Amino acid sequence: MSYIPHTDAERQQMLSAIGVTTIEDLFEAVPAGHRFPSLNLPEAMSEMEVMAELLAFAEANEHSQDFVTFRGAGAYHHFIPSVVNHIISRGEFYTAYTPYQPELSQGTLQVIYEYQSMMCALLGMEAANASHYDGATSLAESVTVALEVTRHKRNKIILSHSIHPQYREVVRTYHQGNPTLRFVGDRGRADIPDLIDMLDDNTAMLAIAYPNFFGQIDDLKHLADKAHAVGALLVMVVNPLAMGMLKSPGELGADIVVGEGQSLGIPMSYGGPYLGFFATRQQYVRKIAGRIVGETVDITGKRGFTMTLRPREQDIRREKATSNICTNQGLMSVATAVYLSVMGKAGMKQVASLNYHKAHYAAQQINQLDAYEVDMSKPFFNEFMVKCPASVQQINNQLLNEGIIGGIDLGEYYEHLRGVMLLAVTEMNTRDEIDGLVSALEQIAKE
Amino acid sequence: MATLQYPSHLWYQHSDEWLLVEGDQGTIGVSDYAQDALNDVVFVELPEVGDKFKKGTVFGTVESVKAAADLKMPVDGEVVAVNSELEATPETINAQPYTGGWIIKIKVTGAVEALMNADEYRAFCESR
Fold first, then answer.
1. What residues have CB less than 8 Å from A415, skipping those under 6 apart?
2. Are A316 and B43 inside 8 Å of each other by CB?
3. What is the C-alpha separation between A359 and A161, in angstroms, rounded?
């Protein structure tokens, strides 16, 4: 359907039908002094002039492509196969909206179904939704599910301090309307055994990160059993790329798996749009938020797809909806679906392995420098902590002069980690780049 | 369409639940009219044994392909049994709304009052 603007004659017809003469007459209800305020806008520019001005703004920014980056902390520089952009740029995907009418939207619905299925395979879980806004939102939604599953008879939520600090902040903001909820466990430095000690029959859920915000892999072997023994849900916030190499959260007994899908075929951009994934066990599927696409047959018996389990959603049952949010990151979920299908199981294993080995090479090299100390106390994936000889900000300023973006300053979020940098290494960092970082760090320490 | 049934030994509510009273024990389900209006039932959310509810409060949900309906208590009571077979075969509610499709059994702890008998409920349904 094309957009056909009104003609002047049609406008006149409509105005006469209402009983007014001009369009301005329709604004009579607005007090005269406020009706047509002067906006003091500069004169209109030509397309050529606008382009020049916007390009100048854009060029004032530094682009990650012009730097070697070793920064992660939830947003990573990974390779995106060009086929991803080709497919998501197609108009059918780029501008498609919510597939409420399955008869018109089989393409969108099928891709979402494939995305859901692949996330289940990657995470070792039984059911996944069509995605949330981002990793932080998915974690916030898991709290709602845990409270519902425990029949609103429990109000304690245990959060590990090693979950992304911004995610934990969003979770608290999201649930601020429920003053009976108690979020515990993340104000200090409680480790897994300490969190287990906090479990009791008032705990609705225990959430940990895997790998954690510091890049480390905690021993999670018995965590599920301990949580389930008190009737609490185990929620894992995971780096999906790491799942190409690590034991899946499903195998570890997680009840809900959430996290950020940006590592799977989505560019860093300016902090978004990203992709919050949410996967769970079949028994909880009616309690979860978000859209779910299911497979079914049409009236002729042909396979088809449709949004399903709709009584969870607000347009069907407003008071009992599982969330106030009723949307998903449609385009990003298509990007991730394309990425996962192009990478396949072998590709995911390979990219995870590259990340792991490059990060370990970098860590070893840096640890050999006298002025720096790498935290090797736990196994890690593609990020690690480095104690620096000067403030992280100073080190990063110097690194920037060498065209290198250093890691984040953990001291900004954790009192006990002042002077500690979180360095990430991905498949995008060549050996030369890593060696360049190491010698730059060595130089900086000498000054 | 088969004619809808309104067994005469039961009490009924405007929200379409029926109540069978046997001494201080009660059995609750949804009426033939309700299962017909809901269409194929796909899921029933049951309370737990031991849960206590006041008359008029929601004790569970019945979900069909078309809608999700709250189940309201016709009388004060404590749940003594739930029909867990409905987990595997929720469609029993459509096939046998008054027998195999029972939803919960309760110990009645309040007065059985302000409910319709079969004739009143039938008249109510036919006027909808």
1. none
2. no
3. 23
Which residues in chain A have Cβ-Cβ distances shorter than 8 Å to B43? 286
> Looking at residues A109-135, what average pLDDT do you find?
97
For the segment A248-264, what is each residue's pLDDT rounded down to a tens digit? 999 999 999 999 999 99
The pLDDT of residue A309 is 86
Contacts of A56 (CB under 8 A, 6+ apart): none
Q: A316 at the B interface (CB within 8 A)? A: yes
Continuous segment of H or E residues that includes residue A423 = strand A420-424
- Fill in the amino acid letter for B41: V
- Match 């004032």 to its residue by tokens: A60
Distance from A126 to chain B by nearest Cα, in Å? 18
Q: Which amino acid is at A74?
A: G
Max Cα distance, chain A (Å): 85
pLDDT, block means (10 residues), chain B with 128 residues:
88 96 96 94 94 96 86 97 95 96 96 95 94
Domains of chain B: 11-126 (2.40.50.100)
Strands laid side by side in the A276-280 sheet = A127-128, A276-280, A256-260, A233-238, A203-210, A156-159, A182-184
Q: Is the pTM of this model over 0.90?
A: no
> Which residues of chain B lie closer than 8 angstroms to A322, CB-CB?
none
Separation in Å, CA A294 to CA A38, A68, A228, A328, B10: 53, 42, 29, 15, 39
Calculate mean pLDDT across residues A275-300: 94
Interface of B to A at Cβ within 8 Å reads 43, 45, 48, 61, 63, 67-68, 70
| b/e code A317-327 from CB counts within 10 Å (16+ = b) | beeebbbebee
Q: Please state the rounded mean pLDDT for residues A326-352.
A: 95
% of chain A exceeding 90 in pLDDT: 86
Q: DSSP characters for B115-126?
A: -B-HHHHHHHHH
The CA distance from A164 to the nearest CA of chain B, in Å, is 35
Dihedral sign of CA atoms A287, A292, A295, A300 in order? positive
* Run of H or E including B58: strand B58-64
> What are chain A's domains?
64-79+345-446 (3.90.1150.10), 82-340 (3.40.640.10)
CA distances in angstroms from A169 to A181, A208, A236, A269, A337, listed in the order given: 14, 15, 17, 22, 29
Q: Is A331 exposed, middle or buried (0-12, 13-18, 19+ CB in 10 A)?
A: middle
Please calculate the CA angle A322-A323-A326 and round it to the nearest 5 degrees.
115
- Per-position DSSP letters for A254-265, written without gaps between them: -SEEEEE-TTTT
pLDDT of residue A1: 55
Q: What angle do CA A218, A421, A427 make, to 5 degrees?
A: 70
Q: What is the dihedral of CA A335, A340, A343, A345, to 10 degrees?
A: 180
